[in-house]
Amino acid sequence: MIKVIVDMNLCQSHGECVYAAPGVFELGDDDVLRWQEEVDESRREELEEAVNVCPMMAIRLEG
Ligand code: SF4
Asked: Domains of the chain by range and CATH?
């Protein structure tokens, strides 16, 4: 499993990560980002894309 860490002090809810890895990242009706903290290895490419497109560099992967 891959651990997904988002620094919510940096996140500005632009939602680029939601397009890159839908289902892992999700913006609530309140515009606050929610995400799965443990994600299957099979989605690594999408997660890396999310890391790369985040304008705030708020996403970090472990494992
Ligand atoms: S792309 Fe980055 S700033 Fe935008 S919602 Fe995702 S984590 Fe937050």
From this structure: 2-62 (3.30.70.20)
